[in-house]
Amino acid sequence: MFMVPPVPRIRVRHKAAGLGLVEVTIAxxxxxxxxxxxxxxxxxxxxxxxxxxxxxxxxxxxxxxxEDVVAQPYANLLALDGNQLTDDTTAETSNxxxxxxxxxxxxxxxxxxxxxxDLRSGREVGRVTTLRARR
Length: 135
Prior knowledge:
By secondary structure, the protein is α+β, with helices and mostly antiparallel strands. It has one domain (21-133). The protein contains one helix and four strands; from the N terminus they run αββββ. It has a four-stranded antiparallel sheet, with helices on one face. A hairpin with a 5-residue loop joins β3 (109-118) and β4. It is rod-shaped and about 130 Å long. The termini are far apart.
């Protein structure tokens, strides 16, 4: 009979399970990079929302001014020329101002120009021009 020699047992050393310092450091760096990008995107969107709300308040203020102009009698419109209207009691505490320019466009026609400015940034936010005829 033929015998097969026994197979010798070989000891295999296994690596220790778990993560090393390099792997943990890389994982934290990737995580921090992702969190920073998310934080920047969130800050940017909050800024955009705040600016949109501010623009909306400005538009509502201009709309209110123009509704008041429409309510004025035709004879009183020319008295509005050169007026500077603000959204608060003083210009220092106001956010917006509307500069009014009113003039006689033709015999029975008055033109009203209103320019809305953001007092914080100094930029023009909106402009409305309308004509009013004598009734």
